[in-house]
Amino acid sequence: MDKLLRIITLILLGTVSIFSQIKVTSLISNKNNSIDNFIFGNSSTRTVFLINDNWKVYKENSSSKFSKTNLPAVFVGDDELVFERKLELTQSQIDNSIVKIGFLGINNVAEIFINGNNIFNNSNAILPFEIILPKDFLRADKSNIISVKVKYKIDSENTIPIKQRFLFPEIGKGIIRDVYVKILPKVNISRIDCINKLNSNATSGKINFNIKIENYLPKPKFGQSNDVIINVNIFSPNQQLLKFDFTQSLGTKEITDANFEVQVSNIIPWSPENPNSYSCEINLIKDGVLVDKQLKQISFYKFEKNNSLTLNGNSFSFKGTTYLLNETKNEYEDIYDIIKKDLLLIKQTGFNSVRFSKSFPHPFAIKLCNEIGLFALIETPLNSIPENFFENNEFKLKVISLEKDFISTYLNFSNTFLFGIGSSFLPNSDITEKFISQVTKEINYYNILNYASFVGLQKNTISNLDFYGVEIFSSPIESIKNSFTEINPSIKNTLFVSELTYSNYKGTTSGYLVKNSVEAQAKYYDDFINLTEELNINGFFINTLLNYKGVYESFFSGYTGDSNYKISVLSKYRNTNNLSYKVLESNLNNGSKVAIPIGIRKEENPIEFILIALFLAIMMAILINSKRKFREDASRALLKSYNFFADIRDHRIISSFHTTLLMLLVSATFSLLFTILLYYYKDNFLLEKIILSFASTRLSSSISFL
């Protein structure tokens, strides 16, 4: 009996040890299994369905030991995990259609297999992407096995973002967004790009279309026509704006670019106050038969920079907030509901813009911004990069390639955004300026306005760069005012505050005289918004309205023990009964002025430091005067180091009691000095970046705790 119990116990322990190493958490996403036509590319000529359910997860070399999960799902650990699922297809779908699999986001390196055959590798899989499933590898007589090998690879030199991430949101490892299958006709529209060229008030102009057509039909015989008609319809809920036909020869290539231009008039332009959008329906007609249809959402607007910013001919300034989302923490609420609730709250507060900093935003967030009237500023998570990286051609090419993919991907979901090259660049650096100029030159053909965010004021213009952001971390308002009055006029016209950060880790106190309190944050934002109006600055982005958790513990935002950054206006409970929130809402909506209590200033030097130092001084005085011989020996050794070694040679040793007490006092003195230094630099973001250069969560957590 005892032997049987031991065997059962060993089996149970073995099972626990196997599965304890694979900690997979399923998240909630798209719980209604709704297929958004603009996000997933669905239409009447296509079949699109989600495959988020019934996946098994295992380590690469142990497929017999697996757990089951639904996607999205994240895992803990540094292992490579394989996500695997069966896919049933009919012979007709394989022979007569093109089958694609799409991923809205994988963090971050992925290898895709179908029936054991590697068909795609992606090192930036967190961007949405689609791939064709080769028909030669597909089976109709039995289930097809889709395998996705996921690895989280991030380091200090070769990845974007790099491992050292200052105030970045925490994103889990795994398949973090929806997965879907798309069944298309053999002649189909794979992509629609359009560039608007409008008049000054955006009521008329022209659209340049570039439509990519995939053709997997057999090549036409000699003399046989291979033309298609591209039928373009643009309409709003109330009217049809345009109907246009264009004939395109497909030739013999698998992918054909159709380029043409159409005139438009009677446009109702998009703006944050009136987020008017049009649905663009592209029909592909071959031999008189509709073979494919794709939908795209288009908004028309004219954003210009002259002596000041104008939108559709009217004066405009950014009134925005950064949005940093812990996307992989939604174990109990649908991520689509979270994003919608957050962005609607931002809009209701009075903001007209959102900056998706330090992240690859969810496509639904970009689409929703367009629909509710929020300018989206999206950017590659290129933050605080050492300058020597910019001189590395391999790194430069990697950045350019990623940024092209970034723009191209998100243009599928919206065109009401500005694109950021990166953030926390060093200002007034020749190396940085050259790097930014080269990158922006490569992406200019997308006709999207761009910006770069600097951790200081940039004095010189950079070729090909449209806007200059400046990041401010709790700098005194007076010093900001003095700096802004000395700006180069050519920079000032295109300058905005991309990140205005003030920590509030002391919570609610008696008033704004208490530094880093909620009241101090409210006063700081109130004064700064008044300053932007006084100096005619092109706008600002509060960092940030909504609470989030980060990768490392932060000094600047206050130690919390769970990497919860205390820089947001609202807590995780989104309670709007908050002084900082009321101040922002009042300023953004021209409401009545909110009273902010003054309170009583508290000394930055805690009384504990003074009392401990006084106690140590008294104890040292008692020790020195406790015995005449000890005082004389200590004085002789202190004045001349030779005496110290001579006393050791002659065995003139002080008592163990005096030695122990002296050791404790010296240790306590150095500990107090170290503590005072840490306290003095506790909210210094430069020190934090130095500690982050080691890329150690334990080190940053320990020093932040101290």
User: Spans with pLDDT under 50 lasting ≥5 residues?
Assistant: 4-20
Helix tally equals: 18
Shape: globular
Radius of gyration: 31 Å
Helix coverage percent:
25-40%
Oligomer: single chain
From the helix content, strand content and strand pairing, which structural class follows?
A: alpha+beta
Taken as a percent bin, the fraction of beta residues is: 25-35%
The averaged pLDDT comes out at 90
Major pleated sheet:
8 strands, parallel, barrel
Which strand order spans the largest sheet, edge to edge or round the barrel? 25-26-27-28-29-30-31-32
Write down how many β-strands occur, each being a DSSP E stretch of 2 or more residues: 32
Q: What is the terminal separation in angstroms?
A: 54 Å
Give a written overview of the molecule.
The chain has 18 helices and 32 strands. Helix 5 links the parallel strand 26 and strand 27. Helix 4 runs parallel beside helix 5 (363-372), helix 13 (607-624) packs antiparallel against helix 16 (656-680) and helix 14 packs across helix 15. The radius of gyration is 31 Å and the shape is globular.
